[in-house]
UniProtKB/TrEMBL annotation:
It comes from Donghicola eburneus. PROSITE patterns: CHORISMATE_MUT_2. SMART domains: CM_2. Residues 8-99 form the Chorismate mutase domain. One of its GO terms (molecular function) is carbon-oxygen lyase activity. GO terms for biological process: chorismate metabolic process; salicylic acid biosynthetic process. It comes from the Bacteria. Substrate binds at R18, R35, K46, E95. This is chorismate mutase. Its EC number is 5.4.99.5.
């Protein structure tokens, strides 16, 4: 099957459309893996900076940023917030396994 990137309207059938979605899913997973490497770096930097794993103000800043980006691009901000809060919670859990939990 031709794996050339196509716009949704250029997909003549379901197999072609599904292949495009599968390719996008692969890209999203790759980006999440890359994001996790930044979380790993935060784990290295936070102790010297005296920072806890969870910084509430930063969590809310990230959520506000993605909500705004989603809204400006026509994606449901509530869905985006829900997804990002899950990603953020996973990231903080990852940090806390190494750093431990303590208050800001």
């Amino acid at each position: 099957m031709d794996r050339t990137r196509r716009a949704p309207t250029e997909c003549p059938d379901m197999p072609t459309l599904r292949a495009q979605i599968d390719d996008l899913d692969t890209q999203l997973v790759t980006l999440l893996v890359e994001r996790a490497t930044y979380i790993d770096r935060a784990i290295q930097l936070k102790p010297d900076a005296g920072l806890p794993a969870r910084i509430r103000d930063r969590v809310e800043q990230v959520v506000a940023n993605v909500r705004n980006k989603a809204d400006s691009q026509g994606l449901d901000p509530d869905l985006t917030e829900s997804l990002w809060r899950k990603i953020i919670d996973w990231s903080i859990d990852r940090e806390e396994r190494v750093l431990g939990t303590h208050k800001e």
